[in-house]
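Good morning C.,

I know you're traveling, so I'll keep this short. The sequence:
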Amino acid sequence: MPIYEYSCRACNHHFEEWVRKEGMSAPCPSCGSDDVGRRISTPQVHSEGRKDLSMRAAKKRDRVQAKERVWTQRQYELNHDD
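The tokens, ready to paste straight into the viewer:
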């Protein structure tokens, strides 16, 4: 049974509901209205753990790039007597 997201047109309440068949819809749990529309569901790709891993990897990459920039600048200064 898939879980669908709905939006009630009567009270503007957003909710999720398990639906047995494709053509069925669920009544609004807030006001009981059958005037509901199915919303586009978007999966959550990033969790807090994933975000932390991404930030650590980005900071590590930035440190390496900073060291490379410093080394390149130093090499340029040593080889050019301006």
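Safe travels,
E.
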